Amino acid sequence: ASFKLPSDSFKYLGWCDVEEHDVRGNQLHCPRVREAGPSEEELFFKGEESTLKKRKQVTDTEKWQKKLQENWENCAELNLSFQDLGDLYQAENFKRILQRLIRVEKLWLVDNSLTDLSAIRLPRCTELNVNKNHFTSFKQLPKIPQIQHLSLAENNILTLSGISDFRHTPLESLILKRNPCEFQERYRQLVFSSLPNLKMLDGIPKLPEDCSPPDIRVFFKMCTIL
């Protein structure tokens, strides 16, 4: 027989709505994005209207207290992977949190079906993992001027166009495994020529053949007939 779990009535509540606790946002390393919840009309059509309690009017003071309690501005490490952002309200809240991560240094956003975060800026982020998403271009990534380690495995990045935007960042290691651009001719040479300061690509350190001088590359393209 099917039955609802005891926690079902809280499925649309955020952690900061739970009374009598002093946990702040920067103390949560793997939060789930579920704040606000769908409208009562949406719930009605889903047959879940009984799971949402009547919301009381929230004052400006309460909103400000909630903002302070979330405290995302002081978060240094955060894992927002596997969020299952199936509803618009979840996606909007997800981006709202990202916009507040002005001090985050390490951020994991794995498997969230993300397509475009170009409007997001992460000024202190040195490590970003966005594996298993739907990015098709480097231009769709957030602004990450201090990035050192970037992982983009299992996306859908078609070409290396835009990769040179990271030339002026301290990027040391880059992972592009299982992206279409990986099959581009002279893939490793093109990446390292675009990013002279890069030390490691797809887990393999920079090799002498990854930085062949231009005249050598031209020589290999020539066909000599004896």
From TrEMBL:
Q: Which domain of life is it from?
A: Eukaryota
Matching InterPro entries, A to Z?
A: LRR_dom_sf (IPR032675)
Transmembrane segment boundaries: none
- Alphabetically ordered keywords of this record: Leucine-rich repeat, Repeat
Q: Which PANTHER family match?
A: GENE 29133-RELATED, LEUCINE RICH REPEAT PROTEIN
UniProt-recorded name of the protein? TILB protein
Q: Which species is this record about?
A: Todus mexicanus (Puerto Rican tody)
Q: Which gene encodes it?
A: Lrcc6
